[in-house]
Amino acid sequence: MLIEHRGAKPTVHPSAYVAPNAIVCGDVHVAADVWILFGAVLTAEDGRVDIGDRCVIMENALVRGRRDTPARLGDDVLVGPHAHVNGATVDDGAFLATGAAIFPGAVVGAECEVRIHGVVHVNSKLAPGATVPIGWIAVGDPAQLFSPDRHEELWAVQETLDFPGTVYGLPRDATPHERMTRQSAWFGAHRNDLSL
User: Fold this and answer.
1) Which residues in the chain show pLDDT less than 50?
2) For the chain, what are the domain ranges?
3) What is 2-195's CATH number, 2.40.10.340, 2.60.120.280, 3.40.50.2000, 2.160.10.10?
């Protein structure tokens, strides 16, 4: 389904496929020979989404563009089932496995692999050709790799990347009420969406 959001309509190359229950919403640009499979959501909230040639966005994956951190997939990228790319850049030939999470401001270099449930944290940069092992976290610029059991070491790097500022536009000490008021207003823009 194609949806106009904030006055912007998606553009989909004639050779691309959008499954009947996939959503392509707002300022989304889909290039040639792309496959957007069942249940996938590509949404340009208040930013832009660009999908390069021959990408495959698998079932129930999410690609979200944001004003300060648009989403961009290079050519020949696979986004696995239940993976999400939220305001990040994924360069040519990268492979994002099932459940991979790529956060705002992140860059996944060309031909990287982010394996099952791997994470590339906010504002982190993964060098071309790097691999994030199953369930591991890449954090920092340049990214360091951490297994989930190394939380204290991970936090020492992650804290400086300003997750709340990047994702919510608020300081770390903002209240849940402040965060959710902002989030509700942001997503509330969908009330005026138009099916195309």
Assistant:
1) none
2) 2-195
3) 2.160.10.10
